[in-house]
Design brief:
alpha+beta, 34 strands, 37 helices, elongated, single chain, five-stranded antiparallel sheet
């Protein structure tokens, strides 16, 4: 294939980008009404792109042309669907037939085949298009173009071979890749649309609940001050929003409830619990108490509470209604208790009255007080009732009524009034039919009157309650309902009377709830719980239902009273609050809270069934570099993508959690053996090995995975987490991008590390540290011109401890600063001695930890003052730093200290060059004087080897930048010769000498001078 043909194919493929703009435009139109017309328009547009593509093809031979129509139609079928693709197929096939040529039939077959494959792939793949991977789309492109090439066998055999030999390689290399790249553009668009829709829905749910919900919501500081309150809470407490924000909730809490509330609140702040619920009272602005039910949870960052969210439900009406109904029941019981009758006998002719002891007792008198009082006295009758009483007596005496019966109030001896039911009849007439005697009874109906008032009040409560109520017979058939029932359910009393109480229950309700309800009613007579109900319009809602039974004298059920309220909005709020408390806001994964709950659940299940639980602890390698280079937004997107891939690597019942930052955990429960966990770890490594598209840049990230098992490695949650964390760090030490199982040796290593960290604090004071020196030889002359100071620790119990083991501990504990200062002064004293005794331009290299360059690290000024006191120039010492320090080059402290070295004449060497992240800009920015080639490049150095090429490139680059080069790890003469021939300035390694104590090195230096 010539260059012109390749250019033509490239230009041809570039036209495919127009598809993305068509898709983007069509995706954001309202296609509810005009969907079919949009499909036709899209198909025509795709057909026009196909025409343009086919008019600029690569023509291999007259009538035999190659272009990207297969990419166009395959992607169209996959993402645009059947109608647009069929239209595009017809248009492009028509053009191809019109063009004619020997391959016209094959061209049409390519069009039909590629479009058909795209449509089939779209409708028969098991997962949504948004889950398409780069690998799958690339495979799709290979199949389409493989089929296209296979169609050339329709030609004569000689022509087929000639065509395939010329176009197979460029077609299979270029077009599947173009197909994959174009397809990923569409996939990313789908994913962004899905993310946008999900965010809009979450925002809508939150705002609708906060601003319009039926419960009060408050967000408060840990110091109990209001941060945000919604309108419903202001309504409950009677304050305006700006007034509430100046108060704190403790001030508004009823004094009797404050202690319990503050006690649970303090427990939450100290981390003993993450939330709590309670019933309490607030004091409204008008001084009235309001009963509420509160659900409280907190939001923590690094264990510290940032703010507290409270959902507050006004339960005052329910509380007052319960108190009133309770009082009514007590009064009704008192009325039903029965009482004796007060008797009176009036001698009409003598106008005297005799009364019994019960009559006296009823009005608070002793019987002795009334024995001598036989007069009729209406003064004790309430003034408002006196006229009615005398009229009733007169009517009976004159024969207008068959009985004197009236209710009125009488004053007791104590000055109070009681209600009396007075019933009497004439019991004796004279010969002239004149009444002679009239007898009657007085019944104390005061309690009945009060009960009637209470019943009237209860009826008012029943009729005006905001909670729905029903009364059913013993069979559960509805007898009566209140107006709130009609408002809540949509059914009028006439529509529901006589029907079963289950008529309003949703068909989706779990049958087991009915069973528990029936069992409770039969055993205790009452039940309370949540049920799913159905409104008359067909909508379902959640209700809080309470049922109580009223019994006959024989303990059979007479009536059942049901009271229920719509808690749909409250359930939604609780669901939102629960989600916020248990899920990570960024990735949607479970958070630490749910992780701990799920791990406890899996451990309990495993203990009962004799199974195992696997715990994987993941940390993303070098994630900080992504944040530093691409920004935190891209870092967040990377975490979201990693979370999705981790979900794809485990079963649905397994739990993936974001533990914090770039750390993730995976709980794999119900394991009969532990081998399957290794497959999961390998799948995770494989899944995360694929590039992540952040913006327009592909980013690669790798995980380090630690694995531990319950109960083999431990039983307590903290122990399992600690073990998994140790295993994860072992994976990082192995080189990252791998997994490592927890072993007992890791625990031993941790314990040894703890011992070393403790002993290291006293190593300087006890003179256990010593400096060794390894010569650095000028490769051109063979002279020892420099030495590297290397620290050694003579531990009294453990013997010689390697710097590779104790230096990281010193950096972690901060003792590296004190040790580093000691090393600098010791090495400076030593080089001053060697300069006087042996060689006046001798240099000593001193390794410095990045910790010493950070804030609170070593005092560079004291180092320079020490050199000045020794009479040494800055050139006497060389500071060796690692490439990792340059990543902190944006720190002002690092820059200032490196510039201080430069200004004082102290040279800076970059150690282990080529193994880290250094770039040319770092070398120029920080004025590096020497590069030290890492021994990993020198170890296998041979003529024309890759390592030799890299070494030569480093040497040439360093010399161009004005730097000298030191090669580490030279162990044989061939390595020295090759490096010297390449122009390397200095060498260091066992070929010249191992690191030596000061006395041995002085002897070596003396011998070297004499030989020279």
């Amino acid at each position: 294939m010539n260059s012109f043909g390749l250019l033509t194919l490239t230009q041809n493929a570039a036209l495919l980008l127009a598809m993305f703009f068509i898709y983007d435009m069509a995706a954001f139109r309202n296609r509810t009404v005009f969907g079919f017309y949009w499909a036709i328009f899209t198909g025509i547009a795709l057909g026009l792109i196909g025409i343009i593509i086919m008019l600029t093809p690569w023509e291999y031979a007259p009538g035999i042309i190659v272009d990207s129509r297969a990419v166009l139609l395959g992607i169209s079928g996959l993402f645009f669907g059947t109608i647009p693709t069929l239209i595009a197929m017809v248009i492009t096939a028509t053009l191809r037939l019109f063009q004619g040529g020997g391959a016209a039939v094959i061209g049409v077959l390519v069009i039909i085949t590629s479009g058909t494959l795209g449509i089939a792939w779209r409708y028969y793949r098991p997962h949504p298009l948004s889950e398409l991977s780069f690998r799958e789309i690339y495979l799709f492109g290979v199949i389409i173009h493989g089929v296209m090439l296979a169609l050339t066998f329709i030609f004569p055999w000689e022509m087929t071979l000639a065509v395939l030999s010329n176009i197979s390689l460029p077609v299979l290399l270029l077009y599947p890749l173009i197909t994959a790249l174009l397809g990923m553009l569409f996939v990313q668009r789908l994913r962004r649309n899905q993310s946008t829709d999900a965010l809009k829905e979450s925002e809508f749910l939150f705002r609708s609940q906060f601003d319009l919900g039926s419960i009060g919501i408050a967000i408060t500081y840990p110091g109990k001050g209001w941060l945000r309150v919604n309108p419903r809470l202001c309504e409950i407490l009677g304050y305006r929003e700006e007034e509430l924000l100046l108060l704190n909730w403790s001030e508004l809490t009823h004094p009797d409830d404050r202690h319990l509330d503050l006690y649970q609140y303090d427990q939450m702040l100290t981390g003993e619990e993450d939330g709590y619920s309670l019933d309490k009272r607030f004091i409204r602005k008008d001084g009235e108490s309001v009963y509420v039910h509160m659900t409280i949870s907190c939001y923590r960052v690094d264990g510290a509470v940032q703010f507290v969210i409270a959902g507050i439900l006004d339960s005052s009406e329910r509380k007052h209604a319960e108190d009133k109904i309770r009082g009514r029941k007590e009064q009704l019981l008192s009325v039903l208790s029965g009482s004796e009758l007060g008797f009176w006998d009036w001698n009409i002719e003598a106008n005297t009255v005799h009364r019994n002891a019960r009559w006296a007792e009823m009005l608070g008198y002793r019987f002795e007080d009334i024995q001598n009082d036989t007069s009729i006295n209406l003064d004790s009758v309430h003034p408002n009732d006196c006229g009615r009483v005398w009229q009733s007596v007169t009517d009976h005496l004159e024969g207008r009524t068959a009985q004197h019966k009236i209710e009125y109030r009488m004053r007791t001896r104590q000055g109070e009034y009681k209600w009396i039911l007075d019933c009497a009849k004439i019991v004796n007439y004279g010969e002239d039919q004149q009444p002679l005697r009239m007898s009657g009874t007085h019944t104390d109906i005061t309690k009945r009157k009060l009960a009637e008032e209470s019943m009237q009040l209860a009826s008012m409560v029943y009729q005006n309650s905001r909670e729905a109520m029903t009364v059913t017979d013993s069979n559960g058939n509805i007898i009566t309902t209140n107006p709130a029932f009609t408002e809540m359910t949509g059914y009028s009393a006439d529509e529901i009377t006589g029907k079963s109480h289950t008529f309003i229950v949703s068909k989706q309700q779990d049958k087991r709830v009915y069973q528990r309800m029936e069992l409770a009613l039969n055993s205790t007579g009452h039940w309370r719980g949540e049920v799913s109900c159905r409104h008359k319009n067909g909508e379902n809602y959640m209700a809080l239902l309470g049922i109580n039974s009223i019994y006959n004298e024989d303990r059979s059920v007479h009536r059942r009273v049901a009271q229920f309220s719509d808690i749909t909005e409250r359930k939604k709020s609780e669901k939102i609050i629960w989600k916020q408390a248990n899920f990570d806001n960024l990735t949607g994964l479970s958070n630490r809270q749910m992780f701990h709950d799920q791990l406890l659940h899996e451990k309990n299940k495993a203990q009962r069934r004799g199974l195992n639980v696997g715990l994987l602890f993941l940390d993303l390698d070098r994630f900080k570099a992504v944040n530093d280079t691409l920004g935190h937004n891209m870092g967040d997107q990377l975490l979201i993508d990693v979370a999705q891939r981790l979900r794809n690597c485990v079963r649905k019942r397994d739990l993936v959690s974001r533990f914090g930052g770039d750390e993730f955990t995976v709980i794999i429960g119900g394991l009969k053996n532990t081998q399957s966990v290794e497959r999961v770890a390998q799948k995770i490594l494989c899944e995360l090995a694929e590039p992540f598209l952040l913006g327009e840049q592909n980013v690669y990230i790798t995980p380090s995975i630690g694995i531990t098992f319950y109960p083999k490695d431990g039983e307590a949650t903290e122990m399992l987490l600690k073990n998994a964390d140790q295993a994860m760090y072992s994976a990082k030490e192995k080189g990252r991008n791998c997994y490592h199982y927890f072993t007992n040796s890791m625990q031993e290593q941790v314990e040894r590390g703890g011992q070393l960290a403790n002993d290291l604090r006293y190593a300087l004071k006890k003179n256990q540290l010593e400096l060794y020196y390894q010569p650095i030889v000028a490769l051109g002359t063979g002279q020892i011109r420099k030495a590297e100071a290397l620290i050694r620790w003579h531990h009294p119990e453990l013997g010689m401890v390697s710097p590779a083991e104790f230096i990281p501990i010193a950096e972690e504990t901060g003792t590296i600063v004190e040790i580093g200062d000691w090393v600098f002064r010791q090495a400076a004293d030593q080089v001053a001695h060697w300069r006087r005794e042996y060689q006046n331009d001798f240099q000593v290299s001193i390794n410095k930890s990045p910790v010493q360059f950070r804030e609170g690290g070593s005092d560079i000024t004291s180092w320079l003052e020490h050199l000045l006191a020794l009479g040494l120039p800055g050139q006497a010492v060389v500071i060796e730093i690692t490439e990792g320090l340059l990543l902190d080059g944006s720190s002002r402290i690092v820059i200032d200290k490196l510039l201080a070295f430069r200004d004082s004449g102290i040279e800076v060497s970059l150690d282990d060059f080529g193994t880290g992240y250094s770039s040319m800009s770092y070398l120029r920015k920080f004025h590096i004087d020497n590069l030290k080639i890492d021994q990993s490049f020198v170890r296998n150095l041979k003529v024309d080897s890759d390592d030799m090429i890299l070494c030569e490139a480093i040497i040439i680059m360093a010399h161009k930048l004005g730097m000298q080069v030191i090669a580490e790890g030279i162990e044989n003469e061939e390595q020295r010769r090759l490096l010297s021939a390449a122009g390397c300035d200095y060498g260091q390694g066992y070929l010249f000498a191992k690191p030596l104590p000061e006395k041995d090195f002085s002897c070596l230096l003396l011998r070297h001078i004499h030989v020279a």
